[in-house]
Amino acid sequence: MSLLLAPRAETPAGPKRSPQQQRILAAAMACFARDGFHGASMQKICAEAGMSAGTLYRHFPSKEAIIAAIVEDERAERLKVFDEVHKAPTILGGLMHCLRLLLEEQALPTATLGPEIMAEAIRNASLRAAVEPCEAETRGHLMAALEEAVARGEIDPAIPLDQVLVLLQILGDGIILNHQLHPEWNITERLPELHRLVVRMLAPAPKAV
After folding, report:
1. Are 141 and 79 contacting, i.e. CB atoms less than 8 angstroms apart?
2. How far apart are the first and last CA of the chain?
3. Which end of the chain is more exposed for a tag (fewer CB within 10 A), N or C?
4. From CA 33, how far away is CA 105, in angstroms rounded?
5. Which fold has domain 64-202?
6. Domain 17-61, CATH homologous superfamily name and number
7. Could you tell me which residues come within 8 angstroms of residue 72 by beta carbon, excluding any fewer than 6 positions away?
8. Backbone dihedral region for residue 106 (phi beyond 0: left; psi -120 to 50: alpha; all else: beta)
């Protein structure tokens, strides 16, 4: 999916959630972060939200539905991130800046919950199906950013962009995971060097003299 030649749509507003739904989602994120996906039972989420099981199930029938709602609520914020990428002096620099924001400011809750969600999605087809539409949209925006980087001369047009997309996603997910697993690595301090390596790896080949 390419958005390069089409006007960018306005950032959509997130779904309108009732106060009870917002309370449930906030409680679920706290439980997932503290106890993990499996450890965070619906009963624990009820207790964290201070409401009955009947009320919770009336709004969200499963933990998978809760995760899908959390991811969907972040859609507008994810689109803002890519808007900042397009406004940056360089696309690759914009992507690295947004990665820094995710690590330092935890701009999106799923940046923290991401490793937990990914691990569960490997074995939970229902969860994977619930979050895949938003993941697919994100990949589409990332591909559009990479196409713009090619147009700006940042990426060698001979490199298949589908491979670049996969490699950058692997790098990003690995960085987010290890930022939590190994805080002593000070990954945010290493981002400038990582940026230089990625730029060097993807840069167009020098023209023959």
Report:
1. yes
2. 36
3. C
4. 16
5. Tetracycline Repressor; domain 2 (1.10.357)
6. Homeodomain-like (1.10.10.60)
7. 14, 15, 134
8. left
- Between CA 102 and CA 99 the distance in angstroms is 5
CA dihedral 90, 183, 75, 34 (to 10 degrees): 180
Q: In tens digits, what is the pLDDT along the chain, a chain of 209 residues?
A: 232 222 333 444 557 899 999 999 999 999 988 898 888 999 999 999 999 999 999 999 999 899 888 888 887 777 888 888 989 999 999 999 988 888 886 656 667 787 888 888 888 898 888 888 888 988 999 999 999 999 999 999 999 999 999 999 999 989 988 998 999 999 999 999 999 999 999 999 887 66
CA distance 45 to 59: 13
* Nearest Cα residue to 180 out of 117, 87, 136: 117
Query: For residue 5, what are the CA distances in angstroms to 65, 86, 89, 117?
Result: 35, 13, 19, 34
Q: Which residues contact 148 (CB under 8 A, 6 or more apart)?
A: 4, 86, 91
**Sequence spans of domains, the chain:** 17-61, 64-202
For helices 75-87 and 63-73, what crossing angle results, to 10°? 30
